[in-house]
Write a structure and sequence with these properties.
Helix content: 10-25%
Number of helices: 5
Strand content: 25-35%
Largest sheet: 10 strands, mixed
CATH architecture of the largest domain: 3-Layer(aba) Sandwich
Number of strands: 14
CATH superfamily of the largest domain: Thiamin pyrophosphokinase, catalytic domain
Order of helices and strands: EHEHEHEHEHEEEEEEEEE
Radius of gyration: 18 Å
Strand order of the largest sheet: 4-3-2-1-5-6-7-14-9-12
Structural class: alpha/beta
Distance between the termini: 25 Å
CATH topology of the largest domain: Rossmann fold
Shape: globular
C-alpha cells in the first residue's frame, strides 16, 4: 500500500488559516508534488499558497481573513470563489474540505490546520471524521508531524525506523488493536479514551501495521524522535 503523501491518486492541497509550521513533513509534501493537483484555500489560508508561489484554484469561506484586493486578484487569475455568510455553522476549513471531496479528490493534504488556538486545532482534527471524507485519505501536516484517523481495518504507516508514532482513541475506546513494527506492541488490547497509553511508540522499520476492530484512532506520526 502506497503512502498517501506520495500516492498517484488525484491530490487536493488545502491550505487552512492556521500557522504554516514548515518542517520535514511539510517538505515531504511540497518537494514531491505531482504534475497536476488542485490548490484550495480556506479563506486566509490563501496567504500560505501565495507565499509559495502557487496558483490557487479555489478560495472557500466567509472571506473575513483575506484582503478584498487579494481576493479580486485571485479571481482574475482564475480562482473559483466559494463565498459564505459569516453566520454559518461550519468553519472555513470544513467547507474547503467539502469542496475537495465534491471534486472527487483521491487524497487530501491539509497544511496550516494547527495553530495557536487549541479550539480551532481540535476542531480541525475532528473534521477528519466528516462523512464526506469517508474513503479519502486525509492528512493534516505541520512541521515534523502528520496526523490522520484510522477506522476499523488494517492500515500501514510509512516512515523510517526511529520515527515516533502515537495512537490516540477519539470519540470513545478503540478495541482489539494489533500492531506490528512498533517497539511497544499491542496484541488485541483496548486503548481507552482518556489514558495516554498510546503516546510515543517507535517505528522499528520503514513501515508499521495497525489493525483495529472497533472505535477510531488518531495517528500522530513524528519524523524522528519526538
Amino acid at each position: 500500500m502506497t503512502d498517501p503523501l506520495h500516492s498517484p491518486a488525484p491530490l487536493a492541497l488545502v491550505f487552512a488559516n492556521g500557522d504554516f509550521n514548515d518542517g520535514p513533513m511539510v517538505r515531504r509534501v511540497l518537494d514531491h508534488l505531482p504534475g497536476d493537483y488542485r490548490v484550495i484555500a480556506a479563506d486566509g489560508g490563501a496567504r500560505h499558497a501565495l507565499a509559495l508561489g502557487m496558483h490557487i484554484d479555489a478560495v472557500v469561506g466567509d472571506m473575513d481573513s483575506i484582503a478584498p484586493e487579494v481576493l479580486v486578484s485571485l479571481e482574475i487569475n482564475g480562482a473559483e470563489i466559494h463565498r459564505y455568510s459569516r453566520e454559518k455553522d461550519e468553519t472555513d476549513l470544513e467547507l474547503a474540505l467539502a469542496v475537495a471531496a465534491s471534486e472527487e479528490a483521491g487524497r487530501i493534504v491539509v497544511i496550516g490546520a494547527i495553530g495557536s488556538r487549541l479550539d480551532q486545532t481540535l476542531s480541525n482534527v475532528y473534521l477528519l471524521a466528516l462523512p464526506a471524507l469517508a474513503g479519502i485519505p486525509v492528512r493534516l501536516v505541520s512541521g515534523n508531524q502528520r496526523a490522520w484517523l484510522l477506522q476499523p481495518g488494517t492500515h500501514i504507516i510509512h516512515g523510517e525506523a526511529g520515527d515516533t508514532v502515537s495512537l490516540l482513541p477519539l470519540g470513545g475506546d478503540a478495541g482489539d488493536i494489533h500492531t506490528d513494527g512498533l517497539y511497544y506492541p499491542l496484541r488485541g488490547e483496548t486503548l481507552r479514551f482518556g489514558p495516554a497509553r498510546g503516546v510515543s511508540n517507535v517505528m522499528l522499520a520503514d513501515t508499521a501495521t495497525v489493525r483495529l476492530a472497533t472505535g477510531m484512532l488518531m495517528v500522530v506520526h513524528t519524523a524522528g524522535e519526538a
